[in-house]
Every structure is written in C-alpha cells, then in structure tokens.
Amino acid sequence: MSFGFHFPGEAFPVLPGHSRAVGGRGMAKGRRQRGRGSGTGERAQLQRNEEVRCSNHDATHKLILSPNGKLSEHWAKGSANCPKTRLVQEMGSQNIVQIACGDQHAMALCRGGELFTWGQNTHGQLGVGSQTTLTPKPQLVERLKGIPLAQIAAGGAHSTTVSLSGAVYSWGKNSFGQLGLGDTKEKGESKKGIKITAGVHQSFVRCKENKNSYLNGIATLEDKEVDAWISNSKCRESIKKNIILIFSSEACINGSFLDKRDKHFKTSKEVSGIDMSEVKRFYEKISKNRTAYQEVQKEIRNLLPSLSPSPISPENFRVYLILPFLLQEKDGDSFLSLILLAQAILKLHPEGLQTLECLWSNLETSFFKELVNLYQSVSQQVLFEFFLSLITTGPGRLFNLDPAETGPLQILQMLYQVNSRTGFRVHESNFHIPQVREIINLCSWFNIATVLWKLSKYPCIFDRENKILVHRTECSFLSRTSPVSAANFATN
C-alpha cells in the first residue's frame, strides 16, 4: 500500500528518496523512483553498537550508539562544529535504545519511553512545534509522551514512529504524501506495524504477519523480572532502579500488560488493549513484597501530577485503567495516590473524559465493580475525615472543602453514570456511602444549605433512606427560612 507521489519501481536499500523492507508484507508512503540504487547516506533506524549516517549531501554527520546505551556524534571533513567524536552530553543520563537520522535532524528513543529529537526543524520534522527552525540540543517530543513506542525512523525532513500496538505517527515535510496522513501532522493512523524505515520523500511500514520480536525498545514488565523483585532481597538497588525506570514512565506502564492475544492491535476508544487479569496478577505478586510494593507506590504517586490533560492516542488512557488496580492496599499511600489519580482524570479535556468513560463502560463487569468499590472506599474515607473535622473545627469547615476531597466523589459519580448507561451491571448499593447520614444529622441545625448543596452534587452516594432524610431536611429548612434565603437555596 503506497501514499503520495509514486513511480513504478522496486524497493531498494534505504537511501535518499526511497525505503526498504526486510521480509514480510509492507506499506510504503511517499515518492519512489525506478532504478534508484545509489546514494550518500542511510536513514534506517539502528540499534546498539551501531552507527547511522545522516544523509546530508556531503555525508559529514553520523550518530554512534554504544552497547551501554550512550550516544555520540561525529562530524567528518574537519567540520568546525564537531571535528571529533563526542558524547552527546545532553543525553548523558539517558539509556538510549534506538537512533535515527534524516537529512539534517536526528531522533533518539530512550529505555524509559521518551523520544528526543534535534537538528533542523524547517518542516516541523522534530515534532516540537514550528516556532524555531533549528534546535541544536535534544528536545523531548511532548506530544508523544505516554505512548509506548516500538520503533522510530527519520526521513529527509520527516519523522515516523510506530507504537507497540501498531499505531503509526508521522510528522514533518509532506510534499509527496510521505506522512500517509494528508496534511495532518502529529496524528497517528493505526496500523499493525512492526518495522518502519524512511527515505527522503518516503516512509515504509512493515505490517505484522507473524510472531517476530520487536527491536530493542522501551522497558516493560516481564514475569521473570517481577519474580526477581519479589524473591531477590540481595539486589535491592538494582530492583529499585528497575522499578523507578518503569513506574516513573507513563509510556512504560502503557506498554505493559498488553493483551497477548494481539487484541491490543485493535486499541481504540472502545478497546484498551490491556489484559486486566495480568494487571491484577501483578498486583497480587508485588504486594507480597512490602519493600518492592512501597517503591512501586512511591513512583506512581510521583508520576500522577505529570499526566497530560490532552492525550492524543487511546494508548495514553491505559494508565488510567491500570493504576487503580495497583493501588488496592488499604493504606495512606494508596489512598493519597487514588486522590491524585482522581485529580489527574478530572484535568482531562472533555474529549478525553469521554474516551475514558467509554473504556470504563467496556471493562468486564468484575473489573468495573472493583473499580467502583475502590472509589467508593476512597470517597467513604474522605467523607469520614470530613465528618471528624466538622466535629473538631465546627461549621466553618463546610466552607473550605478542599477540591482534592471532592475528586474521588466526582469519579464515583462518573462511574455511576457509566453504570446507568450500560444497564446497571453493578448494583446501586455499591455506590452508597453510610457516612452521609451522620454529616446531615450533625449539620441539620447550622449551615445545612451548604451541606446539602455540596453533597447533592453526588446523588449516587445516597441510599433510599438518606434520600428521604435529605428531602425532609430540605423541607424543614425551607419552612423556617425567609423567602429570599429559600430562593437562594433553590438556585443552588
């Protein structure tokens, strides 16, 4: 399948103007010319202990990736920019797993899932916006943050990546349709990709046909590694380092727990691509080792404030499904993390919230019920602490309800609405919170309007008796209140 300006011909080694495939079935994008069999440079993605030469006309620049994941660059012909091979200092702390070069730009994929680009940006080929035409130092491609990338490739003035679930993302120059996406930049087209390369005016995606392994890629959870975390108490520093690597990265989490039946290649707003039973199995394993589990909790808690409010791919949303099931411990750390997760969810833009609700609605009933129970438990704890503070500090507390405290209640109400749209798979009693009655009784003679106004935003927490109590309390309040106050209460 080809896209863009296309001449009859054959696929040749990756040289200026064309691309190549290595086995399997392929999809090409861009310009092809018959008999194009020579050129000045490569733009294939290469792995460790390899070098890749940028394809500028004098072929002076090349990147070198060492076996230990360190990146160096070299300018030939006595260039004043870099006459000798030098370590790319800006990437010194990163463990690089893949590199790629275009005409005047370069890409580097890190073990932790980050993608960095640098060089010329006249056509937006760096993926960092078009405000600047040159970026000499590696910059993080924020738009792809959280997407678990499998491979990267650089064309002449465009860039292409493919995720672990086969979604292809292209950006940069598109004069020959080499992006395969019309005029759209930085937006993916889902394909079952497992191998990509790129030419000056062309991109090539090899489609998945068999059980071929991916190239060296980002870190994801492996059973053997998890077993080592649990059983090996002598390598604590190494275990801690691996836990930090995976659970400090949204991309690494999103790339773990993928459905082994290849359903993750169908990831969409309706299909998460996650094997939730694997998530649960990991939690059951890791929670047996208190030290390792606390490290996981710590990294999750540190990660949550950095989650993007505007994800660009359904793959970004996996983290919102995975993390609650890793925070099931009845302790303060999990309690705080679930509150932070609720805040992150509520920061999502409306379209993102709709996608997440759709993914919730497609969870198996048992997992959806567990999710409801988690947020019901957190909401119950929030209201219990709220009740205790009312007793301690008095009615003034009602006017200072922290937004963090209402987050879990808002998520619980959202889950209730999803549940109602899907035929009440989970019984309503799972949403009820008994503490509501104590709060209403305590406040029935002062500031009751404020109490009811705040709590009535989350009707799912009231059982039948508490709904009747609320109604009676409202009637009592209105009967002894001036018409103006009553009108204000009704407006609220």
Write structural notes for this entry.
RCC repeats lie at residues 113-165, 166-209. It holds the Pfam family RCC1. InterPro entries: RCC1/BLIP-II, Reg_chr_condens, Signaling_Regulatory_Domain. Residues 18-50 are annotated as: Disordered. Keywords: Repeat. By secondary structure, the chain is an alpha+beta fold. It folds into three domains: 25-207, Methylamine Dehydrogenase, Chain H (7 Propeller), CATH 2.130.10.30; 219-362, no CATH class; 377-492, no CATH class. Helices cover 35% and strands 16% of the residues. It contains 14 helices and 15 strands. It has a four-stranded antiparallel beta sheet, with no helix packed on it. The longest helix is centred in the C-terminal third of the chain and has 29 residues, at 365-393. It is elongated, with a radius of gyration of 27 Å. The N and C termini lie far apart (59 Å). Residues 1-48, 184-206 and 209-214 have low confidence and may be disordered.
Topology:
Elements: E1 25-30, E2 50-53, E3 61-65, E4 71-75, E5 86-87, E6 96-101, E7 105-110, E8 115-120, E9 134-140, E10 149-154, E11 158-163, E12 167-172, E13 189-190, E14 193-198, E15 202-207, H1 223-231, H2 236-247, H3 250-254, H4 276-286, H5 290-303, H6 318-322, H7 332-346, H8 350-361, H9 365-393, H10 403-421, H11 435-442, H12 448-455, H13 464-479, H14 483-491
Antiparallel strand pairs: 1-15, 2-3, 3-4, 4-5, 6-7, 7-8, 8-9, 10-11, 11-12, 12-13, 14-15
Helix pairs in contact: 2-5, 5-7, 7-10, 8-10, 9-10, 9-11
